[in-house]
Fold each of these.
Amino acid sequence: MGDGVVYPSVFVVDGQQHGVPFVPPMRRKRRVCWHSQLFLASLVILALAGVATEGYFLIRFQKELEKATSQKPAAHVLGAAFTTSGNGSLQWEHSKDWAFLHDMRYQGGSLICIKSGYYYIYSKIHLMKTPRYAEEMKLVENLILYCDGKDSEFWRQNSFLGGIFHLEEEEQIYVKVSQRQVLQIRDGTRSYFGTFMI
């Protein structure tokens, strides 16, 4: 060691080092549960398919319901005049305000059935004219007794009748009132007549 060269010592300690570097831990391989993931994925797909199928059937049912209700005949006519036709039935307003005819006809105070079926008919007195019977037949009648004496200055009475009847094509239904002088027709809320297929 005499030639003037300085050799480092075998044990050198670096005072500038802050921490000892550690070897990073080895990552464990995750156990992949393919069975559970496949099961969960199939449940999600099955749930989405169920929702899509339910939506399809709901839309289809709604369209069928709209189609079925819009195809059923119905009519609602309003009391408009005290005049009567040849058969004695009251005349009605069938095209103004909230009166309507849907797959039914109106002629001379009568509603004429276009499609056979069961109908709910509502009004005061219902009569049916049909080629099957020689004379008219009362379907529903309401008898109201009123006093026409001098001491009775004012009285009010109303009548509402309704029922379910089977009507054939071209049969007519109409309203007759025996005492027309007691009718009070102002608007469509006091006297009306109608039917709808059930």
Amino acid sequence: MLQNRDPAEDPNHPVDTGSWEHRQWRWLPLDDGVTLRYTVAGDPSGAPVLLAHALGNTGATWDRLAAALCARGRRVIVPDQRGHGGSSQPGDYSFGALYADLTALLDTAAPRGADLVGHSMGGHVCWLIAQRQPDRVRRLVIEDTPPPPKDTAAERALRTGRRHSANLLGVVREFGALRDSGQLDGGAVRPIIDELRYADPGWWRALSRVTAETLVVSGGLDSPVPRALLAEVAERVPCARLLAIDAGHYVHERRPELFDPAVLAFLTTPTPRTAPRS
């Protein structure tokens, strides 16, 4: 259910959007009837960066990083993805729908392109944008995002892997409080997780189309996403590197003192483009 809007959150309400503390809520109606709630803050002329949260989170998970980006003159865009927070709960939670949502948001809030930061579910959507519309993505940060299996053999191993299943259940249990508060459609959990468990060799091939400089962040040994798998993902992207932080799946929440400086440096420090690997 779409949450009621506070008068202070009126998108036409004149507020100072120069800092994250004075961020402005907006709503974006989409063609399929979904309405996305999103936040915009920072310097209106600053380079835009979009932060995409994971399954079971809301845009509020990025508050610390968003405030730091605003303080550095960036224009920060943070949505509640469909089924989460103040956005609609439509029942369709395919990655195709999630991709269309964030593409429409970029059309509205950053039509000339943006940096993308995505965690888990949000990271997968950011990958899709970078693969399918590479000219729209300047730099890309992917936090502990599980790739789909490369083939049916890998798919079978994933489905029968006890360690993966146990860790995945542990992550899912953390969704309870958000679901009980009405800010998560419980029906979103299984479709999204299941879609990531089906083999998709085309996704792996499409990594070579990513032109953005990319930082792939691993949560280390305590994460349900194997570091070696993320290293293989990074190796297939022409201009990517891997950063491992021992924090588990929620790196930006559990080790912000390591995650935030690394991401800020990556996004804000001018660096020469690295020649694609042959």
Amino acid sequence: MDGSMALSEPSSWWNVWAKPADEVLSATSFATFLLLCTLGLTRAMLGLALWLGMFPFLMVSIVV
């Protein structure tokens, strides 16, 4: 039941975005989507940088 809902949801979103009458709404949604992707990538890179920064300290603490 959850699987079928997950499969049907993106198609319904795509149908909403594909309507030519909602070009402004579509552009706004796409801009929001890009912004969220950018924020997500930035957060992931910051997390990776923090993890890589902590890694030597963790290794030292394990060795000591």
Amino acid sequence: MRDDFFYTLKNRILHNAMDLWGVKDLQNADPVLDLLTDIFAYELSKLYQEVEVSNAQLLHRLSSILVDNKWTLPLPSHGLFRIFPNEEVETVQPTNHFYTTKRGLGLSPTPIYFTPLVTQTLYNASVKYTLSGNHISYYENFIRQEQVISSLSPISNENACWIGIEATPAVYAAMDELLLTILIKHSSLYSYAHLIRFYDIDSNEINVRRDVFKKQLITEEHYYPDIISYYQDHFYSLSTDFSSQKLLSLREFSPEINLELEGIDYDTKLLWIKIVFPNFFTTAELQNIRFTLNTIPVVNRQQVYKQHNVKRNGRIASLPCEGKNYLLNLNSIWDNNGHIYQNILNNYKEHPEGTYSLYFGDLEKFDVRNAKTILQKTMYLVREEGSAFAAMNPEKLNTDLEELMRRLDTLERKMISEWGNNDEFNDKTFLLTTPYPKATTYELSYWTTNAEEGNGFDEHSVFHQHTTNEFDMQRSRLITPTIGGATRHTERAQINNLRYGLLSKERIVSEQDIRSYLQQRFGEELIEIKICSGAEIAKEKRRGIIRTTEVHLSFSHRPTEENAGRLALFLQQQLTEKSISNIPYRVFIK
């Protein structure tokens, strides 16, 4: 390729040759000299480009070995999903798939799959009413309704509210723990969530656990810790003997309530829980808080199963991702003898049997996709360059050429019917295994994601369940917009992310480390980062005003107000955890 480097190299060779031969003017030089320097410069520039590509590939491979795969793998979008079971008690698992459809102008509908991030027991129960001050709120056809209660005295204290939970006695009897989700409009108040207290109708305090999903950590899921950390302040697991609790109707709970409000059921027996917030939570703040049950984090991913014959196809298996899907992570791999394989990076045994490693490219010659490309090139050459055979004896070759064309037509039809179009596969990921001696086949499952395509779904999106009928999808909805899906498309972006992971070790020491962390996390979506000093009133008593580090971010597509506040709080926590400084951070998104 004749680029700037080629011309620079050619001119340098040409001038050195003219100096050696004592030629002052290029016009007086032999034309053969210009021809030879052109050839030498062209070959040397090709060699230079190959070395550059080789260096980039070597750096990419070494970096992927030295640092975790999370720096090259995509990030799935995520959100909070409220699920209603059809039975009284149901368990939702990561293998349960829910999907919605993404439509675009002039584009065919694309199914976008979401699955639960954790395994969770669901109960056929819901928060029917929320009482705060003299206000009662409830949901009708997914729309929040709020009315003022005519009562002689407030139903609850200024910094407290009551929730009425509707369920059957059988559900209360089966309920060991109640997973309650609290959504606060102003995300800055989540910093005081640990001060929230829960009481029953008799003013007995209810035990609460906040680290609900921490014990379910899975090392292969690189996105798990960040997503759990993102929503950790939303979940509260309440434990008490629910079957022995008093059940009161709204009429019995507060006889002074005005009995003329429309749309309110005064006679259904409900379980009442009092929630006491810190003193600075005003009535206006409480009225903007939403309480839900059966809510769990979901991520944009789809599980794919594949069987591989070791005897016939060898140790290398390709992990194709069709359409707009990308490999998210490997879920599990097991052979015909029941052995579970593990990542070679986590293997500390002397022998490597029963291990695997992921390769992102570099193994294409072992893949069926490369075979398809070679066959397509062969058919193209035979059909388009057939005139080259005219120089030979056509009568002698006609029969053989006709037979070759018929066989190529048959091969092409088989290739299309079995593998489809070559453009369906957009990711070249391979699994290199070291099987046990007696293993002949193994099965594997892995997750794929749509990355950015999964962002932007909200409570108005209609979801369906895949292959099962365990949940009521007419009532199940997202309660937060999905956010966070991202990929590292270019080789340069992947190398930059790997370099950051290798050099920083996820520590923040300088201002540049803050910029590097944010840029590798958001990529091209982040258009401006401004870092400056600030101040705030300390949360601890008697500390007064303290210094802070303010981080102002601008995105090409600004998140919703709710997601912006939640994302800012999450980034504050992440920067504080990674920083070696004791100065707190404040993040602003505009």
